[in-house]
Write a structure and sequence with these properties.
With 326 residues, this protein is mostly beta strands. It has a single domain (45-309), classed as Neuraminidase, CATH 2.120.10. The chain has one helix and 24 strands. It has one helix spanning 2-39; strands spanning 44-46, 54-59, 65-69, 76-81, 86-92, 102-105, 111-115, 127-131, 138-144, 162-169, 172-178, 186-193, 197-200, 202-208, 213-219, 225-236, 240-251, 262-267, 270-271, 273-274, 277-284, 287-292, 301-306, 311-312. A five-stranded mixed beta sheet has the order 6-7-8-9-13, with no helix packed on it. A five-stranded antiparallel beta sheet has the order 15-16-17-18-24, with no helix packed on it.
Amino acid sequence: MARFQSNIHTNITAMKSSIHFLLLLVAFILPASLISQQNKIARRTALPEALKEVSGMVRTPTGDLWMLNDSKNPPELFRFDPFTKKLLETRRLPIPNRDWEDLAADDQGNLYIGDFGNNRNARRDLCIFLYNPNTHALDSIQFKYPDQTEFAPTDEKNWNFNCEAMVFYRDSLHLFSKNSFKGNFYTKHYVLPAAPGKYVAELRDSICVKNRVITGAALSRDGKTLALTGYIIGKKWGILPYTKANVFFFSDFEGSDFLHGQQKRKRLPKFLIARQYESVTQWEDDCWMVANEGRKPQFQAVWRVKKSRMEQEKNLESKTSLSLVR
């Protein structure tokens, strides 16, 4: 009997030790799981009314997410936290917002504000503002396109001097044009020095993104992946609204020959019709974020996109001769 009671006592002690271990394990694992969930960006995060016409965003090396609105809005930058879903800061700048369209950032934390929206292809005051959020230093980069001789071109099919997409790479800014919906769907790749002054942009390359116009750009922090957002608006049989939107990823390119890389794409969410996606930025690793403007019945929001869940793109015509670019 004494031996039997001893075995029972031993088993109870072992069970208590096991339960104690499990409780400790849960105590460590559960907080880690909660933290993981808290640090995960939602698939969709609504943006405040102040960002109803968001057209540019960038995540800086310090982790700040800055955004801006396009034309007919005050010259303001917005710092937004997608985790808490709160607008942290609104910063008004003493410069005009003729048509702000994209944001880029360099390793020193400088922001490049692309005031180069040009829907009517007639602007002669294209500009990129250089702004440091920490020192408040402000300067400008003025430029023109080397291949534009008419303001605007007589034939709307040649309207390809609008721009809504820009990235910073090393010491340069790379711009990607937004073709007219009546054009040939080529986006042209221009390059400018990332320094104050007046320049004629260099026409580097072009690519045909079939049935899409380019509206936003972002470069991964390691400089190995370029993302472009694009969409199409039209009508089937001249009656039914027809829209599609994608983010296109380019990788395995040399240097800044982005458009010669391997191409993949991801179709972006839609509700009845595709949302007007106009900006993209890398969040971390293969997690990217895209933002759409608010157009009823759709509302402004940022969306999480996984680069690893792309499909191979077969419709892009790369390595286009510049002589074919309009």
